[in-house]
Amino acid sequence: MRRILMLLLLAVFAAGSAFAHGGKSHHVLGTVKELHENHLVVTATDGHEATVTLTAETQYEKDKKPAKRSDLAAGARVSIQLTEDNKSAVKVKIGQQDDHHSEHGGH
Questions:
Q1: % of residues, the chain, pLDDT over 70
Q2: For residue 13, what are the CA distances in angstroms to 8, 19, 38, 81, 82?
Q3: Would you place residue 103 in the very low, low, confident or very high pLDDT band (cuts 50, 70, 90)?
Q4: Separation CA 103–CA 37 (nearest Å)
Q5: Is residue 50 within 8 Å of residue 42, measured between CB atoms?
Q6: Architecture of domain 25-103
Q7: What does the pLDDT look like over 54-70, one tens digit per residue?
Q8: How many C-beta neighbours within 10 Å does residue 94 have?
């Protein structure tokens, strides 16, 4: 019974947090299309392109370990946590290289 109550409270808290943020996820999932000095362009999983600013405070992660901006490359799959205004990256999780993208030289 106690476990059910804890799960219920957790579910209510999670729903409340989502509502407080207007229901937006503040994340971008996709593949890096272009990488520039202070921003990157991601082709999101739904097909739209998103430009995300990279700042000195942006954190990077690869294989669940701290990474560097230099670990980013065109064709890399990424999950990006955004700031509240959806413009800058708080954290970029770098995944596997998209083989289709790299076979065509990034085009």
A1: 68
A2: 9, 10, 35, 20, 21
A3: very low
A4: 24
A5: yes
A6: Beta Barrel (2.40)
A7: 999 999 999 999 999 99
A8: 21
* Location of structure tokens 């579910």: 11
User: How far is the C-alpha of 77 from the C-alpha of 51, rounded, in Å?
Assistant: 15
Q: Residue type at 3? A: R
Query: What sign does the dihedral 87-92-93-96 (CA atoms) show?
Result: positive
Give 54-98 as a 3 state SS string. CCCCCEEEECCEECCHHHCCCCEEEEEEECCCCCEEEEEEEEEEC
For β-strands 59-62 and 49-53, DSSP reports them as: unpaired
Cα–Cα dist 48/42, whole Å: 8
Nearest C-alpha neighbor of 95 from the set 76, 80, 82, 81: 76
